[in-house]
Amino acid sequence: MKLLANLKNAAQKRAAYRRTLAELDALPQKVKTDLAMDHGRACDLARQAIYG
Q1: Residue 34 and residue 43: Cα distance in Å, rounded?
Q2: What's the pLDDT tens digit per position in 6-27?
Q3: What does the alpha-carbon distance between residue 22 and residue 2 come to, in Å, rounded to a whole number?
């Protein structure tokens, strides 16, 4: 049972990571430039937000 719970939790976190990354990637280019954010930085921010 714990294995299934862990798999479900991992899948939920992965989905949240992908949503967060999509939102960051969808920001207007001007905002990304102001924040000095490229795709790699967006990945880092999304990872930190979801996984800590």
Answers
A1: 17
A2: 999 999 999 999 999 999 999 9
A3: 30
